[in-house]
Amino acid sequence: MGLAPRLPIMNPEIKALQAAMERAGYIAEPDIATGAFLAAELGKPLLVEGEAGVGKTELAKVIARVRQTELIRLQCYEGLDANTALYEWNYQRQILRLRIAEREVHDPQALEEMIFGREYLLERPLLRAITRREGPAVLLIDEIDRADDAFEAFLLEVLSDFQVSVPELGTIKAQHIPWVILTSNRTRELGDALRRRCLYLYVELPGLEKEVRVLHGKVPGLNDRLALAIARFMQGLRKRDLRKAPGIAESIDWAQALVRLHQDHLDASVARATLGCLLKDEHDLRSTGEQVVDELVAHATGGS
Amino acid sequence: MPRVAADADPGTAGIVAHLAAFAGAMRRHGIRVGLSDEIDAAEALGRLDLLDRAEVRCGLRIALKVPHDAWAEFTRLFEQHWGGSSAHDVPIAPPTYASALRGPLQWRWDGTRVRLELPEPEPQPGADPGYSANPMLRQKPFDEASAHEIAAIEKLLQRLALRLAARRSRRLVPTPGHGIVDLRRSFRHALASQGDFLRLARRTRPRDQPRVVLLYDTSGSMDPHVRFHLSFAFALRRVIRSVEIFAFNTSLTRVTRAVDPGRLTRSVARLAATVPDWSGGTRIGACLADFVATHPHLIGRETTIVVVSDGLDLGDTAQLVAAMRALRERARTIVWLNPLLADSRYEPSAAGMRSALPFVDYFGPAHNVESIERLLRFLR
Question: Which of A270, B17, B99, B201 is buried deepest, with most CB atoms within 10 A?
Answer without folding.
Answer: B201
